[in-house]
Write a structure and sequence with these properties.
Number of strands: 5
Structural class: alpha+beta
Number of helices: 3
Helix content: 10-25%
Largest sheet: 3 strands, antiparallel
Strand content: 35-45%
Oligomer: single chain
Length: about 120
């Protein structure tokens, strides 16, 4: 079963990621619409980026909803897996990064309990 969490083969590193969408025409939403990959009744709920030996893979996950205002309530009410349509995007790493105004990835060595812990920078 798949879940909305990054994972890789060995999982040496874990962490978090955050991004600010570029303006609507130049962001991920705009790309999907311009390419005809997102229907009027679909809501973009997730995206993933993978880089491996065979190159870069970008996936978008779309949830079918009659009314975009009710997506959150619908998702909360679903017990079990959320039904989404997966769309593979033909983007390079640079093209994917350009869909965001800002993007930050924080990797932490797995198993140390560092996720969301505060830290302070010390001078040598």
């Amino acid at each position: 079963m798949e879940c909305f969490k990054a994972s890789v083969h060995y999982g040496d590193w874990g962490g978090t990621a955050a991004a600010d969408e570029a303006n609507p025409r130049n962001g991920l939403w705009g790309y999907l619409e311009a390419q005809g990959l997102k229907g009027e009744d679909e809501f973009l709920v997730a995206a993933s980026l993978y880089r491996g030996a065979l190159g870069v893979g970008v996936l978008a996950y779309l949830y079918k909803a009659a009314d975009m205002g009710s997506v959150r309530e619908e998702l909360v009410a679903i017990k079990g897996p959320i039904p989404v349509r997966q769309v593979r995007l033909d983007l390079t790493l640079d093209q994917f990064l350009d869909l965001f105004d800002r993007l930050k990835v924080m990797l932490t060595w797995d198993g140390l309990g560092l996720d969301r812990r505060e830290y302070s920078i010390v001078e040598p």
